[in-house]
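Lab notebook, bench 4. Still working through the backlog of constructs that have no structural model yet. Next entry is a single chain of 114 residues. Request: give me the structure tokens for it.
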Amino acid sequence: MLYTPVQARNDKPQDTGLPSSKQFNFRDFVTNLKYSLIPGRPLSRAIGTQTIGTTQVSIPHKLGKMPNVVIITMTSAGQVYQSQAADATNIYLKADAASRTCNVQVLNITDTLR
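Model written out:
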């Protein structure tokens, strides 16, 4: 689907025949992006390699806000999964067996997708 950028001089969307919710406003996008990139509060953070077992482990993510995406990349056989929804300070993981290792990254992209 093609989105039409706003005109440079008056920031009013061009008439594309699309509903207004489908028109792209570059100024709003940049404003939301700017305020989501507050120093000390990154949009993403690599937590690094973790060793997870069959009991729930809470891992501090230090993102500064609740992540809405958790990326788990296995570095061993088996599976590691999110056992509980993340909160503003921790993510919660479990594995299908003892000593499973994985790399973990957390992201919060809500502010840039309004």
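Notes after review: Residues 44-113 form one domain. The chain has a mean pLDDT of 75. Flag for follow-up if needed.
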